[in-house]
Amino acid sequence: MDELMTTEEIVRLCKQHTLYTWAATGAVDPLPIARAEGVYLYTTEGQRILDFNSQLMCVNIGHGHPRIAAAIARQLESFAYTYPGTATAVRARVAKRLAELLPGDLNTFFFTLGGAEANENAIRAARLYTGRNKILARYRSYHGGTNACMQLTGDPRRWANEPGMPGVVHVMDPRPYDYSFGSSAAEQTENNLRYLEEVIMYEGPQTIAAMIIEPVTGTNGIQPPPAGYLEGLEALLDRHGILLICDEVMSGWGRTGKLFAFEHAAGVTPDIVTMAKGLTSAYAPLGAVALSDPIAAHFQDNVFWGGLTYNSHALSLAVAEAAIGVLIDEGLVGNAARLEPVMRAEMERLRERHPSVKEGRAIGLFGMLDIRKNAAGDLIAPYNGSHPAMNELFAFLRTEGLFTFVRWSHIMCNPPLCINEKQLREGFAILDRALEITDRVFEP
Ligand SMILES: Cc1ncc(COP(=O)(O)O)c(C=O)c1O
Question: Which among 66, 159, 331, 382 has most CB atoms closer than 10 A?
Protein backbone atom coordinates (compact mmCIF):
# COMPACT_ATOMS: atom_id res chain seq x y z
CA MET A 1 0.00 0.00 0.00
CA ASP A 2 1.13 3.55 -0.74
CA GLU A 3 2.32 5.13 2.51
CA LEU A 4 -0.03 8.07 2.19
CA MET A 5 -3.04 6.68 0.37
CA THR A 6 -5.32 3.73 0.80
CA THR A 7 -6.21 1.53 -2.17
CA GLU A 8 -9.70 2.97 -2.13
CA GLU A 9 -8.32 6.54 -2.33
CA ILE A 10 -5.95 5.72 -5.18
CA VAL A 11 -8.72 4.16 -7.25
CA ARG A 12 -11.23 6.88 -6.42
CA LEU A 13 -8.87 9.77 -7.26
CA CYS A 14 -7.69 8.10 -10.49
CA LYS A 15 -11.29 7.68 -11.61
CA GLN A 16 -12.36 11.13 -10.41
CA HIS A 17 -9.51 13.13 -11.95
CA THR A 18 -8.31 11.11 -14.96
CA LEU A 19 -10.02 9.64 -17.99
CA TYR A 20 -9.48 5.98 -18.87
CA THR A 21 -8.89 4.95 -22.49
CA TRP A 22 -11.45 3.34 -24.81
CA ALA A 23 -14.01 3.23 -22.00
CA ALA A 24 -16.58 5.17 -20.02
CA THR A 25 -14.46 5.98 -16.99
CA GLY A 26 -17.29 5.28 -14.56
CA ALA A 27 -17.46 1.67 -15.77
CA VAL A 28 -13.73 1.01 -15.34
CA ASP A 29 -12.50 -1.14 -12.46
CA PRO A 30 -8.75 -0.40 -12.58
CA LEU A 31 -6.17 -2.72 -11.04
CA PRO A 32 -4.39 -0.83 -8.25
CA ILE A 33 -0.72 -1.65 -8.85
CA ALA A 34 1.99 -0.98 -6.29
CA ARG A 35 5.02 -2.61 -7.93
CA ALA A 36 6.10 -5.07 -10.59
CA GLU A 37 9.01 -7.43 -11.05
CA GLY A 38 9.81 -9.92 -13.80
CA VAL A 39 6.52 -11.43 -14.98
CA TYR A 40 4.57 -10.45 -11.87
CA LEU A 41 2.54 -7.42 -10.81
CA TYR A 42 1.74 -6.76 -7.16
CA THR A 43 -1.42 -4.91 -6.16
CA THR A 44 -1.58 -2.34 -3.41
CA GLU A 45 -3.17 -5.09 -1.31
CA GLY A 46 -0.21 -7.39 -1.95
CA GLN A 47 -1.88 -9.79 -4.41
CA ARG A 48 0.62 -11.30 -6.89
CA ILE A 49 -0.64 -11.29 -10.47
CA LEU A 50 0.98 -13.04 -13.44
CA ASP A 51 1.21 -10.57 -16.32
CA PHE A 52 -0.04 -12.62 -19.27
CA ASN A 53 -0.22 -9.66 -21.64
CA SER A 54 3.02 -7.76 -20.91
CA GLN A 55 0.58 -4.96 -19.99
CA LEU A 56 -0.24 -3.64 -23.50
CA MET A 57 2.04 -6.21 -25.21
CA CYS A 58 4.92 -3.89 -24.51
CA VAL A 59 6.93 -4.88 -21.42
CA ASN A 60 8.90 -7.40 -23.48
CA ILE A 61 11.92 -7.71 -21.13
CA GLY A 62 9.70 -7.97 -18.04
CA HIS A 63 9.20 -5.58 -15.16
CA GLY A 64 11.72 -3.89 -12.88
CA HIS A 65 14.96 -4.68 -14.70
CA PRO A 66 17.87 -3.00 -12.84
CA ARG A 67 19.82 -2.25 -16.05
CA ILE A 68 17.12 0.21 -17.11
CA ALA A 69 17.20 2.10 -13.83
CA ALA A 70 20.97 2.36 -14.11
CA ALA A 71 20.79 3.61 -17.70
CA ILE A 72 18.28 6.32 -16.74
CA ALA A 73 20.44 7.45 -13.83
CA ARG A 74 23.53 7.54 -16.07
CA GLN A 75 21.82 9.64 -18.76
CA LEU A 76 20.45 12.04 -16.12
CA GLU A 77 23.98 12.70 -14.91
CA SER A 78 24.72 14.51 -18.20
CA PHE A 79 21.31 15.77 -19.40
CA ALA A 80 17.74 14.53 -19.81
CA TYR A 81 16.72 16.48 -22.87
CA THR A 82 18.05 18.63 -25.65
CA TYR A 83 16.05 20.01 -28.58
CA PRO A 84 15.68 17.91 -31.74
CA GLY A 85 18.20 20.02 -33.69
CA THR A 86 21.13 18.87 -31.53
CA ALA A 87 23.48 15.94 -32.02
CA THR A 88 23.88 13.69 -28.98
CA ALA A 89 25.94 10.59 -28.28
CA VAL A 90 22.91 8.56 -27.19
CA ARG A 91 21.03 9.45 -30.40
CA ALA A 92 24.06 8.45 -32.46
CA ARG A 93 24.56 5.16 -30.61
CA VAL A 94 20.91 4.07 -30.72
CA ALA A 95 20.46 4.94 -34.41
CA LYS A 96 23.65 3.05 -35.32
CA ARG A 97 22.52 0.03 -33.27
CA LEU A 98 19.10 0.04 -34.94
CA ALA A 99 20.70 0.24 -38.39
CA GLU A 100 22.75 -2.85 -37.49
CA LEU A 101 19.75 -4.76 -36.13
CA LEU A 102 17.27 -4.03 -38.92
CA PRO A 103 17.78 -6.02 -42.11
CA GLY A 104 18.40 -4.68 -45.62
CA ASP A 105 18.74 -0.98 -46.21
CA LEU A 106 16.62 0.21 -43.25
CA ASN A 107 19.33 2.49 -41.95
CA THR A 108 17.74 5.81 -41.03
CA PHE A 109 15.37 6.59 -38.17
CA PHE A 110 12.92 9.27 -37.09
CA PHE A 111 12.16 9.10 -33.38
CA THR A 112 8.72 9.74 -31.90
CA LEU A 113 7.05 9.16 -28.55
CA GLY A 114 5.02 6.09 -29.43
CA GLY A 115 3.44 3.92 -32.07
CA ALA A 116 0.75 6.28 -33.33
CA GLU A 117 3.21 9.11 -33.91
CA ALA A 118 5.48 6.64 -35.68
CA ASN A 119 2.68 5.65 -38.06
CA GLU A 120 1.68 9.30 -38.60
CA ASN A 121 5.23 10.09 -39.65
CA ALA A 122 5.55 6.93 -41.72
CA ILE A 123 2.61 7.92 -43.92
CA ARG A 124 3.92 11.49 -44.02
CA ALA A 125 7.26 10.21 -45.31
CA ALA A 126 5.56 7.89 -47.81
CA ARG A 127 3.41 10.71 -49.18
CA LEU A 128 6.27 13.20 -49.44
CA TYR A 129 8.54 10.62 -51.07
CA THR A 130 6.07 9.24 -53.63
CA GLY A 131 4.07 12.42 -54.25
CA ARG A 132 0.97 10.23 -53.94
CA ASN A 133 -1.78 10.53 -51.34
CA LYS A 134 -3.79 7.36 -50.71
CA ILE A 135 -2.90 4.71 -48.14
CA LEU A 136 -4.16 1.14 -48.20
CA ALA A 137 -4.82 -0.48 -44.82
CA ARG A 138 -6.54 -3.66 -43.68
CA TYR A 139 -9.80 -4.01 -41.75
CA ARG A 140 -8.38 -6.25 -39.04
CA SER A 141 -5.89 -3.72 -37.78
CA TYR A 142 -5.08 -1.18 -35.12
CA HIS A 143 -2.56 1.54 -35.89
CA GLY A 144 -2.97 4.05 -33.05
CA GLY A 145 -5.29 6.56 -31.44
CA THR A 146 -4.39 9.82 -33.23
CA ASN A 147 -6.53 11.23 -36.03
CA ALA A 148 -4.69 9.78 -39.01
CA CYS A 149 -4.01 6.48 -37.25
CA MET A 150 -7.66 6.10 -36.34
CA GLN A 151 -8.45 6.30 -40.05
CA LEU A 152 -5.73 3.74 -40.84
CA THR A 153 -7.21 1.48 -38.16
CA GLY A 154 -9.76 -1.02 -39.44
CA ASP A 155 -11.23 -2.16 -36.13
CA PRO A 156 -14.29 -0.64 -34.41
CA ARG A 157 -12.26 1.93 -32.51
CA ARG A 158 -12.33 3.87 -35.80
CA TRP A 159 -16.11 4.22 -35.96
CA ALA A 160 -16.56 6.92 -33.32
CA ASN A 161 -13.53 8.80 -34.72
CA GLU A 162 -14.89 9.22 -38.23
CA PRO A 163 -14.67 11.23 -40.35
CA GLY A 164 -11.00 12.06 -40.16
CA MET A 165 -8.03 12.29 -42.50
CA PRO A 166 -9.18 11.40 -46.03
CA GLY A 167 -7.37 9.06 -48.38
CA VAL A 168 -7.39 5.71 -46.56
CA VAL A 169 -8.79 2.70 -48.42
CA HIS A 170 -9.46 -0.42 -46.37
CA VAL A 171 -9.05 -3.87 -47.82
CA MET A 172 -9.78 -7.38 -46.58
CA ASP A 173 -7.34 -9.45 -44.59
CA PRO A 174 -5.98 -12.69 -45.97
CA ARG A 175 -7.75 -14.88 -43.40
CA PRO A 176 -11.56 -14.47 -43.15
CA TYR A 177 -12.93 -13.48 -39.74
CA ASP A 178 -15.03 -16.62 -39.66
CA TYR A 179 -12.40 -19.11 -40.68
CA SER A 180 -14.59 -22.15 -39.95
CA PHE A 181 -15.20 -23.01 -43.59
CA GLY A 182 -11.49 -23.61 -44.01
CA SER A 183 -9.85 -22.60 -47.27
CA SER A 184 -6.15 -23.48 -47.47
CA ALA A 185 -3.42 -20.95 -46.74
CA ALA A 186 -2.38 -21.00 -50.39
CA GLU A 187 -5.96 -20.25 -51.50
CA GLN A 188 -6.29 -17.45 -48.96
CA THR A 189 -3.09 -15.82 -50.21
CA GLU A 190 -3.98 -16.19 -53.86
CA ASN A 191 -7.55 -14.93 -53.49
CA ASN A 192 -6.58 -12.03 -51.26
CA LEU A 193 -3.80 -10.76 -53.50
CA ARG A 194 -5.94 -11.09 -56.62
CA TYR A 195 -8.68 -9.04 -54.93
CA LEU A 196 -6.12 -6.50 -53.70
CA GLU A 197 -4.76 -6.00 -57.21
CA GLU A 198 -8.29 -5.31 -58.42
CA VAL A 199 -8.74 -2.67 -55.66
CA ILE A 200 -5.45 -1.08 -56.71
CA MET A 201 -6.71 -0.93 -60.30
CA TYR A 202 -9.99 0.74 -59.23
CA GLU A 203 -8.24 3.25 -56.96
CA GLY A 204 -5.52 4.05 -59.52
CA PRO A 205 -2.04 2.83 -58.57
CA GLN A 206 -0.56 6.25 -59.35
CA THR A 207 -2.65 7.70 -56.47
CA ILE A 208 -1.51 5.20 -53.81
CA ALA A 209 1.55 6.04 -51.71
CA ALA A 210 1.73 3.01 -49.44
CA MET A 211 0.04 0.07 -47.84
CA ILE A 212 0.36 -0.31 -44.08
CA ILE A 213 0.05 -3.74 -42.46
CA GLU A 214 0.74 -5.43 -39.17
CA PRO A 215 2.96 -8.32 -40.39
CA VAL A 216 1.38 -10.45 -37.67
CA THR A 217 -2.02 -8.94 -36.83
CA GLY A 218 -2.08 -7.99 -33.14
CA THR A 219 -5.17 -7.07 -31.15
CA ASN A 220 -7.43 -8.09 -34.01
CA GLY A 221 -6.65 -11.77 -33.79
CA ILE A 222 -2.93 -12.53 -33.34
CA GLN A 223 -2.96 -13.73 -36.94
CA PRO A 224 0.26 -14.68 -38.68
CA PRO A 225 -0.12 -14.27 -42.45
CA PRO A 226 -0.85 -17.35 -44.55
CA ALA A 227 2.13 -18.84 -46.37
CA GLY A 228 3.42 -16.70 -49.20
CA TYR A 229 1.29 -13.65 -48.36
CA LEU A 230 4.05 -11.22 -47.37
CA GLU A 231 6.29 -12.24 -50.26
CA GLY A 232 3.37 -11.93 -52.72
CA LEU A 233 2.23 -8.63 -51.23
CA GLU A 234 5.70 -7.09 -51.48
CA ALA A 235 6.00 -8.13 -55.14
CA LEU A 236 2.50 -6.83 -55.96
CA LEU A 237 3.07 -3.44 -54.32
CA ASP A 238 6.48 -3.18 -55.96
CA ARG A 239 4.95 -3.65 -59.40
CA HIS A 240 2.79 -0.59 -58.78
CA GLY A 241 5.40 1.60 -57.07
CA ILE A 242 3.46 1.41 -53.78
CA LEU A 243 5.54 1.41 -50.58
CA LEU A 244 5.16 -1.33 -47.98
CA ILE A 245 4.94 -0.03 -44.40
CA CYS A 246 5.20 -2.71 -41.73
CA ASP A 247 3.72 -1.63 -38.40
CA GLU A 248 5.87 -3.61 -35.97
CA VAL A 249 4.69 -1.64 -32.93
CA MET A 250 3.24 -4.76 -31.32
CA SER A 251 4.81 -7.60 -33.31
CA GLY A 252 8.36 -6.24 -33.20
CA TRP A 253 11.21 -6.61 -30.73
CA GLY A 254 11.11 -10.34 -30.26
CA ARG A 255 7.42 -10.90 -29.63
CA THR A 256 7.09 -13.46 -32.47
CA GLY A 257 10.39 -15.24 -31.80
CA LYS A 258 12.27 -13.10 -34.33
CA LEU A 259 13.38 -9.53 -33.81
CA PHE A 260 10.73 -8.35 -36.30
CA ALA A 261 7.69 -10.29 -37.50
CA PHE A 262 8.29 -9.59 -41.19
CA GLU A 263 11.54 -11.56 -40.87
CA HIS A 264 9.48 -14.77 -40.81
CA ALA A 265 8.99 -14.22 -44.56
CA ALA A 266 12.27 -14.90 -46.31
CA GLY A 267 13.68 -12.00 -48.28
CA VAL A 268 10.96 -9.45 -47.50
CA THR A 269 12.29 -6.00 -46.65
CA PRO A 270 9.67 -3.29 -46.14
CA ASP A 271 10.29 0.25 -47.33
CA ILE A 272 9.30 1.64 -43.94
CA VAL A 273 9.03 -0.04 -40.53
CA THR A 274 7.39 1.52 -37.48
CA MET A 275 8.07 0.43 -33.92
CA ALA A 276 7.45 1.46 -30.29
CA LYS A 277 6.39 -0.67 -27.27
CA GLY A 278 9.20 -3.28 -27.13
CA LEU A 279 11.74 -0.70 -28.36
CA THR A 280 11.99 0.47 -24.75
CA SER A 281 9.91 -2.36 -23.25
CA ALA A 282 7.70 0.55 -22.13
CA TYR A 283 10.15 1.79 -19.49
CA ALA A 284 9.92 5.16 -21.29
CA PRO A 285 7.83 6.40 -24.21
CA LEU A 286 9.58 6.06 -27.57
CA GLY A 287 8.65 5.16 -31.13
CA ALA A 288 10.66 5.10 -34.33
CA VAL A 289 10.16 5.13 -38.07
CA ALA A 290 12.80 3.17 -39.99
CA LEU A 291 13.33 4.40 -43.54
CA SER A 292 15.00 2.53 -46.40
CA ASP A 293 18.01 4.17 -48.03
CA PRO A 294 16.21 5.64 -51.09
CA ILE A 295 13.55 7.28 -48.89
CA ALA A 296 16.16 8.55 -46.44
CA ALA A 297 18.23 9.92 -49.35
CA HIS A 298 15.18 11.87 -50.52
CA PHE A 299 15.07 13.67 -47.17
CA GLN A 300 18.75 14.61 -47.37
CA ASP A 301 17.72 17.04 -50.13
CA ASN A 302 14.06 17.65 -49.36
CA VAL A 303 12.44 18.96 -46.21
CA PHE A 304 10.84 16.41 -43.89
CA TRP A 305 7.72 18.34 -42.94
CA GLY A 306 7.37 16.92 -39.46
CA GLY A 307 8.63 17.51 -35.94
CA LEU A 308 8.02 16.88 -32.26
CA THR A 309 9.32 18.63 -29.16
CA TYR A 310 10.36 15.25 -27.81
CA ASN A 311 11.91 13.93 -31.03
CA SER A 312 15.07 11.94 -30.15
CA HIS A 313 14.49 12.45 -26.42
CA ALA A 314 17.75 11.51 -24.70
CA LEU A 315 16.18 9.83 -21.70
CA SER A 316 13.94 7.62 -23.83
CA LEU A 317 16.85 6.77 -26.12
CA ALA A 318 18.99 5.78 -23.13
CA VAL A 319 16.18 3.48 -22.04
CA ALA A 320 15.89 2.00 -25.54
CA GLU A 321 19.61 1.32 -25.62
CA ALA A 322 19.44 -0.54 -22.30
CA ALA A 323 16.20 -2.40 -23.12
CA ILE A 324 17.57 -3.60 -26.47
CA GLY A 325 20.73 -4.63 -24.62
CA VAL A 326 18.72 -6.74 -22.16
CA LEU A 327 16.63 -8.28 -24.95
CA ILE A 328 19.71 -9.35 -26.90
CA ASP A 329 22.13 -10.17 -24.05
CA GLU A 330 19.59 -12.27 -22.16
CA GLY A 331 18.51 -14.15 -25.30
CA LEU A 332 14.86 -13.20 -24.90
CA VAL A 333 14.03 -13.37 -28.61
CA GLY A 334 15.30 -16.95 -28.58
CA ASN A 335 13.32 -17.61 -25.41
CA ALA A 336 10.13 -16.52 -27.19
CA ALA A 337 10.90 -18.90 -30.07
CA ARG A 338 11.83 -21.73 -27.68
CA LEU A 339 8.61 -21.38 -25.66
CA GLU A 340 6.31 -21.19 -28.71
CA PRO A 341 5.87 -25.00 -28.82
CA VAL A 342 5.14 -25.02 -25.08
CA MET A 343 2.44 -22.39 -25.54
CA ARG A 344 0.99 -24.27 -28.51
CA ALA A 345 0.98 -27.55 -26.57
CA GLU A 346 -0.77 -25.89 -23.63
CA MET A 347 -3.36 -24.41 -26.01
CA GLU A 348 -3.92 -27.78 -27.63
CA ARG A 349 -4.33 -29.37 -24.20
CA LEU A 350 -6.99 -26.76 -23.37
CA ARG A 351 -8.73 -27.34 -26.70
CA GLU A 352 -8.93 -31.05 -26.03
CA ARG A 353 -10.24 -30.54 -22.48
CA HIS A 354 -12.68 -27.69 -23.13
CA PRO A 355 -15.42 -27.86 -25.76
CA SER A 356 -15.68 -24.04 -25.72
CA VAL A 357 -12.13 -23.59 -27.05
CA LYS A 358 -12.31 -23.20 -30.82
CA GLU A 359 -8.67 -22.59 -31.67
CA GLY A 360 -5.38 -21.51 -30.11
CA ARG A 361 -2.72 -19.69 -32.12
CA ALA A 362 0.83 -18.71 -31.19
CA ILE A 363 3.86 -17.37 -32.96
CA GLY A 364 6.68 -16.86 -30.48
CA LEU A 365 5.01 -15.62 -27.30
CA PHE A 366 2.25 -13.91 -29.29
CA GLY A 367 -0.83 -16.02 -28.67
CA MET A 368 -4.60 -16.08 -28.57
CA LEU A 369 -7.43 -18.46 -27.70
CA ASP A 370 -10.73 -18.18 -29.60
CA ILE A 371 -13.84 -19.20 -27.64
CA ARG A 372 -16.88 -20.70 -29.40
CA LYS A 373 -20.46 -21.04 -28.25
CA ASN A 374 -21.51 -24.18 -30.08
CA ALA A 375 -20.36 -27.28 -31.91
CA ALA A 376 -20.87 -25.48 -35.24
CA GLY A 377 -17.92 -23.27 -34.21
CA ASP A 378 -19.71 -19.90 -33.96
CA LEU A 379 -17.67 -17.49 -31.84
CA ILE A 380 -19.20 -16.93 -28.40
CA ALA A 381 -19.60 -13.14 -28.82
CA PRO A 382 -20.54 -11.14 -31.90
CA TYR A 383 -17.90 -8.99 -33.63
CA ASN A 384 -17.28 -6.00 -31.33
CA GLY A 385 -19.62 -7.57 -28.75
CA SER A 386 -19.36 -9.37 -25.45
CA HIS A 387 -20.88 -12.38 -23.70
CA PRO A 388 -21.71 -12.66 -19.99
CA ALA A 389 -19.60 -15.83 -19.72
CA MET A 390 -16.54 -13.99 -21.09
CA ASN A 391 -17.08 -11.20 -18.54
CA GLU A 392 -17.32 -13.81 -15.79
CA LEU A 393 -14.18 -15.53 -17.08
CA PHE A 394 -12.31 -12.20 -17.02
CA ALA A 395 -13.37 -11.57 -13.41
CA PHE A 396 -12.29 -15.11 -12.46
CA LEU A 397 -8.81 -14.58 -13.96
CA ARG A 398 -8.37 -11.45 -11.92
CA THR A 399 -9.38 -13.13 -8.69
CA GLU A 400 -7.06 -16.04 -9.46
CA GLY A 401 -4.10 -13.75 -10.17
CA LEU A 402 -3.81 -13.71 -13.98
CA PHE A 403 -3.76 -10.42 -15.86
CA THR A 404 -4.70 -10.54 -19.52
CA PHE A 405 -7.09 -9.03 -22.05
CA VAL A 406 -10.37 -10.69 -22.85
CA ARG A 407 -11.82 -9.08 -25.98
CA TRP A 408 -15.03 -10.22 -27.68
CA SER A 409 -14.48 -13.99 -28.10
CA HIS A 410 -10.73 -13.92 -27.61
CA ILE A 411 -8.24 -14.36 -24.77
CA MET A 412 -4.76 -12.88 -25.17
CA CYS A 413 -1.66 -14.89 -24.21
CA ASN A 414 1.28 -12.49 -24.50
CA PRO A 415 3.55 -12.72 -21.44
CA PRO A 416 6.87 -10.91 -21.10
CA LEU A 417 9.58 -12.63 -23.14
CA CYS A 418 11.58 -13.38 -19.97
CA ILE A 419 8.92 -15.84 -18.79
CA ASN A 420 10.09 -19.38 -18.03
CA GLU A 421 8.32 -22.63 -18.81
CA LYS A 422 7.02 -23.12 -15.28
CA GLN A 423 5.50 -19.64 -15.17
CA LEU A 424 3.97 -20.11 -18.63
CA ARG A 425 2.32 -23.36 -17.51
CA GLU A 426 1.17 -21.57 -14.33
CA GLY A 427 -0.75 -19.11 -16.54
CA PHE A 428 -2.37 -21.86 -18.60
CA ALA A 429 -3.33 -23.74 -15.42
CA ILE A 430 -5.38 -20.71 -14.34
CA LEU A 431 -6.93 -20.47 -17.82
CA ASP A 432 -7.74 -24.19 -17.61
CA ARG A 433 -9.88 -23.58 -14.55
CA ALA A 434 -11.40 -20.40 -16.00
CA LEU A 435 -12.58 -22.12 -19.19
CA GLU A 436 -15.06 -24.19 -17.20
CA ILE A 437 -17.11 -20.98 -17.18
CA THR A 438 -17.43 -20.85 -20.98
CA ASP A 439 -17.87 -24.64 -21.16
CA ARG A 440 -21.00 -24.27 -19.03
CA VAL A 441 -22.77 -22.21 -21.73
CA PHE A 442 -21.44 -24.30 -24.65
CA GLU A 443 -24.21 -25.73 -26.85
CA PRO A 444 -23.15 -29.19 -28.05
C1 LIG B 1 0.08 -2.44 -34.20
C2 LIG B 1 0.00 -1.17 -33.42
N3 LIG B 1 0.29 -0.01 -34.03
C4 LIG B 1 0.25 1.16 -33.38
C5 LIG B 1 -0.11 1.23 -32.05
C6 LIG B 1 -0.18 2.55 -31.36
O7 LIG B 1 0.88 2.70 -30.50
P8 LIG B 1 0.82 3.81 -29.32
O9 LIG B 1 -0.31 3.42 -28.45
O10 LIG B 1 2.18 3.71 -28.69
O11 LIG B 1 0.61 5.12 -29.96
C12 LIG B 1 -0.42 0.05 -31.38
C13 LIG B 1 -0.81 0.09 -29.96
O14 LIG B 1 -1.37 -0.85 -29.41
C15 LIG B 1 -0.37 -1.18 -32.08
O16 LIG B 1 -0.66 -2.33 -31.48
Answer: 331
Mean pLDDT of 21-30: 97
Residues 6 or more apart from 282 whose CB is under 8 A from it?
55, 56, 58, 59
Arithmetic mean of pLDDT, 101-116 = 98
> How many Å separate Cα 430 from the centre of its chain?
24
| Pair (321, 380) in one structural domain | no
**Confidence check: pLDDT of 1 > 80:** no
User: pTM higher than 0.85 for the full model?
Assistant: yes
The response to whether residue 116 sits with its C-beta less than 6 Å from ligand 1 reads yes
Three-class DSSP category at 362: strand
Closest Cα partner for 318 from 139, 79, 149, 145?
Answer: 79
Domain extent at residue 45: 31-61+331-440
Distance CA 442, CA 52 (A): 25
Within a domain: 85: yes
152 lines ligand 1 (CB under 6 A): no
Cβ–ligand 1 distance for 250 under 6 Å, the answer yes
The end-to-end CA distance of the chain, in Å, is 47
Q: If you measure from the C-alpha of residue 238 to the centroid of ligand 1, how many angstroms do you get, rounded to a whole number?
A: 26
Whether the CB of 278 sits within 6 Å of ligand 1: no
The H helix count followed by the E strand count for the chain is 13, 15
Classified as helix, coil or strand, 135 is strand
Choose the final residue of a domain: 295, 329, 363: 329
Q: Are 202 and 349 contained in the same domain?
A: no
Query: Is residue 366 within 8 Å of 255, Cβ to Cβ?
Result: yes
Does 78 lie in the same domain as 37?
no
277 and 354 co-located in one domain: no
pLDDT one-digit tens code per residue, 248-267 = 999 999 999 999 999 999 89
